[in-house]
Amino acid sequence: MKRLKVLKSLVVAMIVFLGLSLTSCNNDRYEPVAVKLSDVNGNYKARLITSQGGKFNEKLIDFVAKDTIITFKDFPVREIVKTVVTDPVKADTALAHIAKIEYKLNYKSKLNVDQNVVELTFEPKTLVFQIPVDGVTKNAVVKMVAKQKGFFVGYDWSVRFGLEAEKITVDGVDLTPYQTIKYDIPISVKN
């Protein structure tokens, strides 16, 4: 009989303890850290998805956001070169001889407190570089556009945006026919 009372007392004590421990969970709510415009600044490693027509390519790239400029130290130009130089062997040879191409993307930022994001409105510049083919250097001018805003997301501290190579001009002549090349960065991680 004495053992039964002790056992009942232990069970009641455990139920009370569990009840009290679960009530403390009611106050655990996610409180997001409010973003500031300066939070965009930093070094990022990003997943880049490049698409043209039905072809997709995915790779990791790095970029730096500082003040109002995103800088790519090595902008991916593989699809552009393969569009200009249609022979795959010559295109690969040209890519091997092209140095890293730096591209700077200007943006304006605006704080969206309700969504806890910084909205990025881009002002792309043309991308200009040279492509060596069969001993001749071709001057490529690529008109870059951003049709949508980008975002710095406060939830995971990432930057998300997209660009398009809308038109390519080689030695003053527009490439025709031409399929737009899209550069999408659906997620990036701040280093």
What does this structure look like?
The chain is of the alpha+beta class and 191 residues long. It has one domain (38-190). It has three helices and eleven strands. The chain has helices at 2-23, 78-84, 88-97, and strands spanning 42-52, 55-66, 69-72, 103-112, 117-123, 127-133, 136-145, 150-153, 158-170, 173-174, 181-190. The chain has an eight-stranded antiparallel barrel. Helix 2 (78-84) packs across helix 3. It is elongated. The protein starts with a helix and ends with a strand.
Produce the secondary structure layout.
Blueprint: H1 2-23, E1 42-52, E2 55-66, E3 69-72, H2 78-84, H3 88-97, E4 103-112, E5 117-123, E6 127-133, E7 136-145, E8 150-153, E9 158-170, E10 173-174, E11 181-190
Antiparallel strand pairs: 1-2, 1-11, 2-3, 3-4, 4-5, 5-8, 6-7, 7-9, 8-9, 9-10, 9-11
Helix pairs in contact: 2-3
What does this entry show, briefly?
This protein is an alpha+beta fold and 191 residues long. Helix content is 20%, strand content 47%. The model has no long low-confidence stretch (mean pLDDT 90).
Any key phrases for this structure?
191 residues; 20% helix; elongated; alpha+beta
Basic shape: elongated
The main β sheet shows up as: 8 strands, antiparallel, barrel
Radius of gyration, Cα only, in angstroms? 27 Å
Lateral strand order in the biggest sheet? 1-2-3-4-5-8-9-11
Structural class: alpha+beta
Strand content: over 45%
SSE run: HEEEHHEEEEEEEE
Poorly predicted tracts of residues = none
Mean pLDDT: 90
Number of strands: 11
